Please model this.
Amino acid sequence: MDAKLLDSLKERSAKEAERKAIIEEGHLPALAELLVTEDEDNALVLPALEVLFYLSTEGALRPKIASVDGLLQNVQKFISRGRLKQKKVALMTYKNLQVPSCFLLPPLILSPP
Model:
């Protein structure tokens, strides 16, 4: 996967309406493959993690994302030894993928005191 396609996926994944289409187009294995690298300085790692984060915010898509071979293990790898921003995005993505969607509650909206 090249940087141009990855940038396009990042923009599209930020839009809730596009997330299901990205998965249906078969981009998950390529995104998972980008995380196999041992090079933390690889410029494609952070955008790939960001795309996965956006996709993981969609509860119905989580089982399909989590079922991609090696994806969770590679996301977890960046939690422990990635750069700071990689760690943050990887941690949020991993947490999203660990919570069964049936247990998710709607966001709590607090009004200011």
